[in-house]
Design a protein that fits this description.
The complex is a heterodimer of chains A (115) and B (111).
Chain A (H helix, E strand, L loop, with lengths): L4 E3 L2 E4 L5 E6 L6 E7 L5 E8 L2 E5 L7 E4 L6 E5 L8 E8 L9 E2 L3 E5 L1
Parallel strand pairs in A: 2-11
Antiparallel strand pairs in A: 1-3, 3-8, 4-5, 4-9, 5-6, 7-8, 9-10, 9-11
Chain B lengths: L2 E4 L4 E4 L4 E3 L1 E4 L5 E7 L5 E7 L5 E4 L2 E4 L9 E3 L8 E8 L6 E2 L3 E6 L1
Parallel strand pairs in B: 2-12
Antiparallel strand pairs in B: 1-4, 3-9, 5-6, 5-10, 7-8, 8-9, 10-11, 10-12
Classes of the chains: A mainly beta (115), B mainly beta (111).
Chain lengths: 115, 111
Amino acid sequence: EPEVTQTPSHQVTQMGQEVILRCVPISNHLYFYWYRQILGQKVEFLVSFYNNEISEKSEIFDDQFSVERPDGSNFTLKIRSTKLEDSAMYFCASSKGIRTGGGYTFGSGTRLTVV
Amino acid sequence: GDSVTQMEGPVTLSEEAFLTINCTYTATGYPSLFWYVQYPGEGLQLLLKATKADDKGSNKGFEATYRKETTSFHLEKGSVQVSDSAVYFCALSHNFNKFYFGSGTKLNVKP
């Protein structure tokens, strides 16, 4: 069964450093997403991406965050200058389309620890 | 705004016990409702869904009914197995572009 692959599974970074989280969505999917879950809290929507641009973003997704699909297969989330409160599990997801939610699939997550 | 509240865990049950995990929601309009499951080391997997009021979603012995009058979507299973041990997330979505999740309920099933 097709999978959404996220790398790395764990990342530790120092406060103020840039970090890039990587995702390989399912190959025939067109919509891409990032969510995060701070320990003990809800899984929160960050951003959706379609046709090489952001289609929706949450208030969490401020100027410190950016997304990119650099090569047609990877989908990345960049945090420019990490803060302690960015420590969380980050989930990537992809789907064939909205309205039907066809094949909406999540990756296994990247645990980011900012020290 | 839209939100989902589910019972806190962990929930610990013996094998073959009856499971209920409560979920209530707040939303404008008529969202679709979902249960996702996360096994250790894996991603969030869709367990079941219901797209309108009174619909019952079911999969792998799990069931949940979309109750508009009580804004609830409680997850039930008649006889749990050790292999059901996982974290369960209730969620809603209006257009499948964005999901609102609860905080998850960890289920431990003991032999």
